[in-house]
Amino acid sequence: SCIGRLRIRDRNDIIDLEGLGSGGWTISPMLDNIEILESDAEFILVLEKDAAMIRLAEARFWRKYPCIILTAKGAADIATRMFLRRINKELKLPVFTLVDSDPYGHYIHSVYLRGSKRLSYESPFLATPNIKLLGVLTRDLEKYKIPNDCRIPMNQTDIKRTKELLNEGFVKKNKAWETDLKLALKLKIKAEIQALSAFGFEFLTDQYIPEKLSTGDWI
């Protein structure tokens, strides 16, 4: 789903995504019927989780920080990736992901970045090569003093998946990404986006995201 500073035409209906409830606009797989009308957004934020979307929607995050927010509610489905690629191409805005600090979150970021291995033949039409990983980074856990009880020990599958990611060419090309995954492997910890709410519900919207965006703290 999608919400924020964007107006579209869906066949004959003009939809202002800023005025929708916390559920946002359900991204249509029939993108040929969608026309991008206007946007004064300054960036696009892609969220792994619906819970984070609801939090940002409740805070009307896009009013203070002009943006378009998308989520595929977990796995990066084709409709969401196609729509992201389309608005990215038409609006030419910076794009960021906010995912859990775990191998699956990093994998989801990689699917938006370059497409999935399973659909490699379609990847050029679905990828957003300029997307940046805003968080949650392993280094953020220390930087923002995330409490230990919000940090989760990695299991064997997590360790295996992290090692697999470190073997990927697209990770090796990005030294900051490689460093963050190596740190996760060294500490053997992971954390969910929700860990940030240890400091209160406003921490994500009022401090974490704005601070990282203003300081360029992404991968």
From TrEMBL:
Gene Ontology molecular function terms on file: DNA binding; DNA topoisomerase type II (double strand cut, ATP-hydrolyzing) activity
Record domain Topoisomerase 6 subunit A/Spo11 TOPRIM: where: 43-213
TM spans (from-to): none
Stored Gene3D superfamilies: 3.40.1360.10
GO cellular component: chromosome
One GO term of the biological process aspect: DNA topological change
Protein name as it appears in the record: Topoisomerase 6 subunit A/Spo11 TOPRIM domain-containing protein
Organism annotation: marine sediment metagenome
